[in-house]
Design brief:
Oligomer: heterodimer
Number of strands of chain B: 0
Largest sheet of chain B: none
Shape of chain A: elongated
Number of strands of chain A: 21
Helix content of chain B: over 70%
Largest sheet of chain A: 6 strands, mixed
Radius of gyration of chain A: 25 Å
Distance between the termini of chain A: 63 Å
Distance between the termini of chain B: 37 Å
Structural class of chain B: mainly alpha
Strand content of chain A: 25-35%
Number of helices of chain A: 9
Largest interface: A-B, 31 and 24 residues
Shape of chain B: globular
Structural class of chain A: alpha+beta
Number of helices of chain B: 12
Chain lengths: 373, 262
């Protein structure tokens, strides 16, 4: 077969809905540990997707398989309709930003940003122009001659981002890039990353164990646990309509209660002998069955909200002053809920040990599949 | 508190005397070539001796060749051990320590048996081939120092992340090794290089038994036949070693890399 035939061969058409596509991807390490099991995901071009989960859930391993640093035990990875499953990392045109910055200590900021372009043997003038542009974008236009150790953590991570983007990668991978930074820098930098990603329209995969980061930055979130995908959805869906107990408990603060099904048709359940009605139910209810109920603290109010709401009586067990809010814990008998009140200096905080009524809408109670702590 | 401080100073003074006194005595003796007055006649005689120049030049060339070979052998090995085969670190460290345990004379007799003129690889059959063999033997002798220096340098940087960062930017293995890893262990490599230089310049056993005109056998020859020149040569050899250590200190303050190696 001559070269012309090869070059003239039609490229597979790229489906914009599956710019990055992972199909039945699995990773098993030596010793049989199944780190990632049957991972399926399609990411649209320009989409920002976060992998969210606790340590050891497989999110970084999945990212490293996309980058090419780990080979999947089975499955297939496509980028822009091209099978990259067995390509080396330097053949994938993927930009990566690491938690530990990974700037080359022997090179200046400008040399770091220029590295990928020089590797690709771009003309010197183009390299200079692109480095200047990237330094301007990350708001460090006068830091080109500095060495990494002369920069703060936030500045180093911005340089790492500029270096990854300088080569115009098809896909940007960020592996917990803000974990090593302090809280204020994290918030400002995550806004910068998101706005930069929107401006460039680059497809991005972001690994984090910080739910706030994932919720605030992502178009979609992949919640992972023990190598499995628990749920894929928009931040709104993940927060408000968690499909599993794990998602419900991992994303946001959540009250988990045990309730016994009284009437499946009306959604009536008994919590410590007090009946409530749940409007959102996962799976079919059976009479007498014990189910977990999820209830966000912000959905609960202290006091009697009147007819149409669920009302439960209990005793105030704990009152924590958190600044802008006061967190109150109300115990029924076996079960307890936490709720947040705005801190109003004109209103006295509830007292520990006093009787209290809490109210919450029927729509705010989510009955999860299964039971157990 | 005060007593312990006095004790410390006494220990330091005794240690200094133990190390410095023989050097001072050797230096003082080397200045006594001219009867009744101190002079540098012994040094003039040494520097004027064509054998000194020839043997010093020979050992310098071999030292440089040893350093180049050592770096090419050790840096990729230590890098790969750190990156991909950390479980083999113990074995490799043991192997690199062997030259400290096995006497040089045993190694050189092994070479003579393996590479004599009637063997499959007769490296002792010609002067040039013996020079190559001597260089290899010097690489072996310097291995513990070079490997340790490079390994320490590699442990001070995040080899895996730097490698992956370079890979994601499209770099090949050669680019990663020569443009990312090697510059970041430059100080460690230089330390190993200067230690190697100091070892090779004064090495006697291997060069003598392989019958090569190196500086070590020349020192021995002078010591057996002259009075003052050997002292001058000893001082010169010490000066070379100290210069090497001085260079290690100077290069350890390289720009762009923190003093702690990061």
């Amino acid at each position: 077969m001559d070269a012309r035939v090869l070059t003239d061969a039609p490229l597979p058409a790229e489906d914009p809905r599956r710019f990055l596509h992972l199909e039945h991807v699995q990773k098993t390490f030596a010793g049989g540990a199944n780190v990632v099991a049957n991972f399926n995901l399609s990411v649209k071009r320009g989409e920002f997707v976060s992998f969210l989960g606790p340590s050891g859930c497989g999110k970084t391993t999945t990212l490293r398989m996309i980058a090419g640093f780990e080979m999947p035990t089975s499955g297939r990875i496509e980028i822009a309709a091209k099978d990259v499953t067995h390509l080396r990392p330097n053949q994938r045109n993927v930009g990566m930003v690491f938690q530990a910055y990974a700037l080359f200590p022997n090179m200046t900021v400008a040399e770091n940003v220029a590295f990928g372009l020089k590797v690709k043997k771009r003309p010197a003038e183009e390299v200079r122009a692109r480095v200047s542009e990237m330094l301007r974008i990350i708001k460090l236009p006068n830091h080109g001659d500095r060495y990494p150790y002369q920069l703060s953590g936030g500045q180093q991570q911005r340089v790492a981002l500029a270096r990854a983007l300088a080569v115009k990668p098809e896909l940007l991978l960020l592996d917990e890039p803000l974990s090593a930074l302090d809280a204020k820098i994290r918030v400002s930098l995550r806004q910068e990353i998101r706005s930069l990603q929107r401006d460039l329209g680059i497809t991005t995969i972001y690994v984090t164990h910080d739910q706030e980061e994932a919720l605030s930055m992502s178009d979609r979130i992949v919640v992972m646990n023990e190598g499995h995908v628990e749920q894929i959805g928009s931040p709104f869906e993940i927060y408000n309509f968690p499909r599993t107990r794990f998602v419900a408990s991992f994303v946001g603060t959540l009250n988990l209660l045990e309730g016994r099904v009284v009437d499946p048709a009306s959604g009536r359940l008994a919590i410590d002998d007090q009946e409530i009605v749940a409007a959102r139910v996962t799976g079919a209810l059976k009479p007498g069955e014990v189910r977990s109920l999820a209830l966000r603290p912000e959905a609960i109010v202290l006091g009697d909200a009147g007819e149409g709401s669920n009302r439960m009586k209990g005793t105030i067990e704990e009152v924590s002053f958190l600044g802008a809010v006061i967190r109150v814990r109300v115990r029924f008998r076996e079960n307890a809920v936490s709720l947040d009140m705005f801190n109003n200096p004109g209103v006295a905080a509830p007292e520990r040990g006093s009787a209290a009524t809490v109210s919450f809408a029927r729509e705010d109670v989510l009955v999860l599949e299964g039971a157990g702590a | 508190m005060k007593r312990s401080r006095v004790g410390s100073w006494v220990a330091i003074a005794l240690g200094t005397l133990y190390f410095v006194l023989p050097l001072v005595a050797t230096f003082e003796f080397s200045l006594k070539m001219r009867r009744g007055v101190y002079s540098f006649d012994a040094y003039s005689a040494v520097f004027a001796d064509p054998r000194f120049q020839a043997t010093f030049l020979y050992s310098t060339v071999l030292a440089i060749a040893t350093i180049v070979l050592g770096v090419l052998l050790v840096v990729p090995t230590a890098y790969w051990i750190q990156l991909r085969l950390p479980r083999l670190r113990g074995i490799v460290e043991f192997i690199t320590l062997l030259p400290l345990v096995i006497p040089a004379i045993v190694i050189v007799f092994g070479y003579l048996r393996m590479y004599n003129s009637s063997s499959i690889l007769p490296l002792t059959g010609s002067a040039a081939a013996t020079d190559v063999l001597l260089t290899f033997s010097y690489v072996t002798l310097a291995l513990p120092y070079m490997y340790r220096a490079v390994d320490t340098g590699l442990r001070a940087i995040d080899v895996r992340t730097l490698t992956e960062a370079a890979q994601s930017l499209g770099a090949s293995w050669a680019t990663i090794l020569f443009r990312v890893i090697l510059p970041n262990v430059r100080i460690a490599v230089l330390s190993g290089a200067f230690l190697t230089f100091a070892i090779v310049i004064g090495e006697f056993t291997m060069a003598s038994l392989l019958d090569r005109p190196a500086f070590g056998p020349y020192l021995q020859l002078m010591g057996a036949n002259r009075a003052y020149e050997p002292s001058a040569l000893a001082v010169i050899a010490f000066a070379v070693t100290w210069a090497c250590i001085g260079f290690i200190q100077i290069f350890a303050r390289g720009k762009g890399v923190r003093p702690d190696g990061r």
